[in-house]
Amino acid sequence: MSTPEQMRAAVAHYVEEIHRAYIAQALTFPAAVRGQMPLLAPGPLTVAAVGARNLHVLATRDSLGPVRSPEVELLGSVEGLAWTLRFFDPVVLPELALIDESARPAFGEVRHALGIGTVVYHFVAEPGTGLSGHQAAHVGTGLAGGHSAVARDFETIRSRVRGREDLVDEMAGAAAAGLVRAHAMLAAALAPYNAALAAFAAQARPEAVRRELLTAVGGRTQWQPPAPSEAS
Prior knowledge:
The protein has helices at 4-26, 31-34, 107-114, 133-160, 165-177, 180-190, 195-203, 206-216; strands at 46-51, 55-60, 72-78, 81-88, 121-125. By secondary structure, the chain is an alpha+beta fold.
C-alpha cells in the first residue's frame, strides 16, 4: 500500500509528464498558435490534485490562497513552464466528503468545492487507474492537440470578421476560461442570423458553437472573400 508521500510523488510525476508532452507537441505548431495555447500563457499556474471518490487533476489560473496546514504543495517546472501542485482531500477540504461520485465523476461539484471558476484542464483518474508516464504522455499530447485546434479556429474566425476582432478575442477568452454561456452568446453576436448558433447559445455547447461559427464564416480552408458588388 502506497504511503501519502509516495502517492503525492506519483501525482507530481504524472502532472510533469502531462506538461512535458504538451510542450513537445506544442513545439510542432506555428509560434502564433503556441502563443494562444492556454497552458503556455504567462502568469501563475496552480494544479490541484483533489481526492474525492476519484482523483481529480485540474489546472487553473485562479488563486487558491495561501497554503494552510495540513495541506501540502509541491513546485514543478519543465522547459519554462512552472506550476504549483496542491493536494486536497476531505481532511484538508471537508466539503469533498459530501460529493457523490457513485454514478459518475462530479467535475462541477469538485470545482465548486475549491471555489474555482475557470480551468485550463480537468482530468479524472478513476480508482484502479494508474498514473503512468505513458498515460500522461497521451493525455498531454491530446490536450495540446485540442488546444491548438481551438487556437487555429479562432485565428481563422478572426480573419473573416474584420472590424469585430474584439468580439472574437472575448469569445476565445471565454472559451479558455470555461465560460460556456458567454462563449455561445458572443458567437451568436458574431453571426446573428445563424439559427444553429442561436440554438447553441441556449444549450451552451462550446465545441459545437465554435465549429458552427467557423462554418458560418466560410470554414478553415478553401475560402474566398465575397467579390465586391459592381456599381449599378
